[in-house]
Design a protein that fits this description.
The structure is a homodimer of 148-residue chains. By secondary structure, chain A is of the alpha+beta class. The first copy, chain A, has a domain at 38-122: Alpha-Beta Plaits, CATH 3.30.70.100. The first copy, chain A, contains 5 helices and 4 strands; from the N terminus they run H-E-H-E-E-H-H-E-H. A 4-stranded antiparallel beta sheet of chain A has the order 2-3-1-4. In chain A, a hairpin with a 5-residue loop joins strand 2 (71-79) and strand 3. Chains A and B meet through helix 1, helix 2, strand 2, strand 3 and strand 4 of A and helix 1, helix 2, strand 2, strand 3 and strand 4 of B.
């Protein structure tokens, strides 16, 4: 009889451990995908400032994702055929998170220091066509980046 | 003495359980971000086929991410100001994964059934400027999508 309780206790510990690990990804700042702001920024940079711009953008994107719970993604890329052509996939938890982002010291620093480097800038608001598949995508992305 | 072994056994189970849960995100198909293929596809669709196209694209993207270990992201969006303008962020684990994707029944079905719906198509290969921040982004995305 005592052994049954020990086995049940172990089972309970395993189940609660799994639940805790899963829940830890949800965080305190959970929000609905319906409220998300998705944007693709298209930015052309003057050739002379290229390496300087990359350094400043990298710092700003990293700080935003790390420090702001409402900034879900600031994912900067450049075109392989023309490295002066940048595209940034930006995802904010909601409108308030975006407005709050604009007031942060790291965004203000990025904006002022890169002002003269930018040749053209186009911001395009987007809508995702399938939020249901998002969990699978992000699970897979984690599997790639965690092996570094 | 027997109780000590039971406690040690429980501790071992909890530790191994946590390790298993963490490792399960890495999968068998782990690869370096350096090998990844990142692309933004820009697709304009004839207005008349819009809802039909969305339905086919959604099905294809979902099947690709679910069935193909090498397809990390096929994340389709459309412009809020012009819903005939689609942008897809595609991330493949490596070149082989992309080539294998082109041979799948779901991609072939998408390609043939949408051929006449497409007004223009531009595929642009991209490079990410900061792979180190990716884990934070994808952790945050998971926290949003798992609350649905």
């Amino acid at each position: 009889m005592k052994q049954i309780f020990i086995v049940l206790g172990m089972l309970f510990m395993v189940i609660s451990c799994k639940t805790t690990t899963k829940d830890s990804y949800q965080g305190d700042e959970a929000a609905s995908p319906d409220e998300m702001l998705i944007r693709i920024s298209e930015i052309k940079i003057h050739q002379a400032y290229l390496s300087e711009y990359i350094s400043i953008l990298k710092e700003e994107a990293e700080a935003s994702v790390r420090l702001e719970p409402g900034v879900i993604s600031i994912f900067p890329m450049f075109q392989m055929e023309d490295s002066t052509e940048f595209r940034i996939l930006e995802i904010y938890r909601n409108k308030e998170a975006y407005e709050s982002h604009l007031k942060t010291p790291h965004f203000k620093k990025y904006k002022t220091t890169t002002l003269d480097m930018v040749e053209s800038l186009k911001l395009t608001d987007m809508e995702a066509i399938d939020e249901e598949t998002m969990p699978d995508i992000f699970l897979k992305l984690r599997s790639v980046v965690t092996v570094q």
